[in-house]
UniProtKB/TrEMBL annotation:
Molecular function (Gene Ontology), one example: histone methyltransferase activity
Keyword hit for Transferase: yes
Residue stretches of biased makeup (Basic and acidic residues): 1-12
Record's keyword annotation contains Nucleus: yes
Region (Disordered): 1-20
Keywords: Chromosome, Metal-binding, Nucleus, Transferase, Zinc
GO CC field: chromosome; nucleus
Matches recorded under SUPFAM superfamilies: SET domain
Domain SET: 296-429
Source domain of life: Eukaryota
InterPro entries: Pre-SET_dom, SET_dom, SET_dom_sf, SUVR4/1/2, WIYLD_dom_sf, WIYLD_domain
Full protein name: SET domain-containing protein
Amino acid sequence: MTSHQIDSKTSDPRPPPNLNETKVRKAISAMKGLGISPEVVKPVLKNLLQLYDGNWELIEEENYRTLADAIFESLDDKKSIAGGSTSSNMNTVIRKKRRQNVQVDDDMVSASKLTSQGVQLDNSSSNSFVKRNPKFHNDSDITRGTEKIKIPIIDEIGLEPPKFLYIPQNISYQNAYVPFSLDRISDDSCCLKCRGDCLSLRVPCACSGETGGEFAYTSQGLLKVDFLNACISMNIEPQNHHLFHCQDCPLEKVMNVHNPEPCKGHLLRKFIKECWRKCGCTMDCGNRVVQRGPTRKLQVFSTKGKGWAVRSAEYLPKGSFICEYVGEILTNTELYKRNKQSRKNERHTYPVYLDADWGSEQVLKDEEALCLDATHFGNVARFINHRCFDSNLIEIPVEVETPDHHYYHIAFFTKRNVDPYEELTWDYGIDFEDVNHPIKAFECQCGSPYCRDVKRKG
């Protein structure tokens, strides 16, 4: 963008009334770098705030791009800002923007038709009409810059903005025992002597031990087909695989301390072991996929009936890593108490139990019976909706900074090829008939022909 020194003797130098002075100063400072004087910025800013009903987010996003566009767009009008009436020119700009807003609904219908037909939309153009309508809440980056990629949130129906704090990594709540220590990782379970990319080695290093002596990833960063299919088979037919039973099950004990029911069994799942800081390889190593964070073009978007959802703006091949499920690390007891104390009508994101090693000990300590809750603190995964049986994502445990299976990372991978703008879903594993579950099962609206919510289907 070319800098222009713009001034106006006719503009009112006083700040517009009822404005946040701190935000005004920041906007003036940003425009000063483009050579635009404060006398010009203030009346333009006032008109934009009137247009956007005082929504500063629409003005501040992308380094005040909307404000700069409004100023420079008026330069091409019949009169230049430097020599004419600023308010007259701004009225022209506002009329143009209002005409664009009138076309929003038609653009949405066209966009939804293209998406349903599998036509890939340009990411920038598909978001532009949403940003210009102050009726809708939109954010160019829901991660607030904490991830390597931007993840926009797009509201196309006027849904209430989500209330939570985005975090890129798990955080411990109070009593959860998660010891991250290099000393606890033995030399036999890491690759001290490796250099560069471990996937390029003729013989897989020690970090491949958790996956049977072979790495789970391909050189393209995808899950190997055999490994992925084995994980899918476990989820589809758990009765055909090994289930371990706790002698003193944390799930049953927390609901009835004095007379807990017998453990219903936990699935012994396949693991991915990634290289970590104690290894000699670099962060570019092909066995460090999950810890590098999401890299796909994800979007959070509003739906009718299911709240917020997640989709990708690009094609996703089978075995693609999407994101980790991030939230607060709680003990099973802490989560149960939290849900009992919360308001009955308060909506929760469904908890994830880290139960990979619950059956290996006779009695598991409460601080080691861990779970994740993304209600108040979480990442993009908290918006991924449930779908019974035929979801397109699968969750797989990933071991990174601790050898204990009491705590691990939950990573989402695609079970099949996923088309652009197709909603991403995963099976929460909910028993809709379990009335004793700490979280009351919601009415499933997944739309799957294999939906397990029998009452809902009836």
